[in-house]
Specification:
The protein is of the alpha+beta class. It has 4 helices and 5 strands; from the N terminus they run βααββααββ.
Length: 140
């Protein structure tokens, strides 16, 4: 992959920053001329990833930071979303549909499933203090 451009955004893990993050990523993505549907896809996936950081990594405490790095090539964008929270104990289990560690509330356990549906690839690495979700979205 030949890099054509990249950017990095750091936000606080606050719910009001989720829509800002997805808008910034979408605005960056338009440089490689994606379709409107592809832009909406990446916005949805980024929204899910950032929400996961806020709700799970930091237990909804509205504190901590989230780093988002976007790298463009001629035909794709890679988005890495990092948090420095508690980590995911079992990534494989966490990526299964309907799995959630939050009891009660309105969490469906579909975050990773949604990311996988809207991206060409999703890769998750996690340990205490660092979780990285890597999303790749290709343009035709």
């Amino acid at each position: 992959m030949t890099t054509t451009n990249s950017m990095k955004l750091t936000i606080e893990a606050k719910s009001q920053n989720e829509s800002f993050a997805r808008s910034v990523v979408a605005a960056f993505f338009v440089q490689i001329n994606p379709t409107l549907e592809q832009v909406e896809d990446i916005k949805t996936a980024v929204s899910e990833a950032v929400t996961n950081c806020i709700v799970h990594a930091y237990d909804g405490a509205q504190q901590g930071t989230i780093e988002i790095t976007c790298t463009l090539s001629e035909k794709s964008m890679t988005v890495e979303i990092r948090d420095f929270g508690k980590g995911i104990e079992n990534v494989e289990q966490a990526m299964k549909p309907f799995f959630t560690t939050v009891s009660g509330g309105d969490r469906s356990g579909m975050g990773f499933t949604v990311m996988q549906a809207f991206c060409d690839s999703v890769n998750v690495t996690s340990k205490q203090g660092l979780t990285t979700v890597k999303l790749v979205k290709k343009v035709a």
